[in-house]
UniProtKB/TrEMBL annotation:
GO terms for molecular function: hexosyltransferase activity; UDP-glycosyltransferase activity. It is found in: Golgi apparatus membrane. Keywords: Glycosyltransferase, Golgi apparatus, Membrane, Signal-anchor, Transferase, Transmembrane, Transmembrane helix. This is Hexosyltransferase. Its main location: Golgi. Belongs to the glycosyltransferase 31 family. It comes from Aldrovandia affinis. One of its GO terms (cellular component) is Golgi membrane. One of its GO terms (biological process) is poly-N-acetyllactosamine biosynthetic process. Its EC number is 2.4.1.-. InterPro entries: Glyco_trans_31.
Length: 159
């Protein structure tokens, strides 16, 4: 994450930044049994603006202030990630997709590969759905000084 933020160059938090797993072309769920149920009385529109999944996202201080300010003029919606998308839209800003944010976990390319191989996670900004002991193990694995990742290492792990 530090490398990604440093790659932004002149964005020291004073400019718009909101990246994550982008969701678009979604609308309210009108089924009363769903935990995401939103009645027409709360949200008349049948579509939501683009938003990032609430499993995790990265935003700047500037964008946090914008969302806070917009929250004073937008009626609350009980789905926080959608609500932030609504605030961004009202401010004329938009969230952006980032490959390194995995709110549904990370799917490895083959059943022959260890799903917890730290090499798959080195460039990821955020992974949702890890248990605490998995986070601990992965953190240490990623920061292992002798960790070797690459094509040769990956093909060797398939055998």
């Amino acid at each position: 994450m530090v490398e990604y933020l440093q790659s932004l160059g002149d964005n020291d938090g004073s400019k718009h930044l909101f990246v994550g797993h982008l969701i678009h072309y979604m609308g309210p769920i009108r089924e009363s049994g769903s935990k995401y149920f939103i009645p027409v009385q709360v949200q008349k529109s049948n579509s939501y603006p683009p938003y990032c999944s609430g499993g995790g996202f990265l935003l700047s201080g500037f964008t946090a202030r914008v969302i806070y300010n917009m929250s004073h003029v937008i009626t609350i919606l009980p789905i926080d990630d959608v609500y932030m998308g609504m605030c961004l839209e009202k401010a004329g800003l938009a969230p952006v997709s980032h490959f390194g944010v995995r709110t549904a976990g990370l799917h490895v390319p083959s059943q022959n590969v260890d799903a917890y191989d730290p090499c798959y996670y080195r460039e990821i900004l955020l992974v949702h759905r890890f248990l605490p002991h998995q986070i601990f193990t992965m953190w240490h694995g990623i920061h292992e000084p002798d960790l070797k990742c690459g094509i040769l290492q990956m093909s060797a792990s398939k055998t």
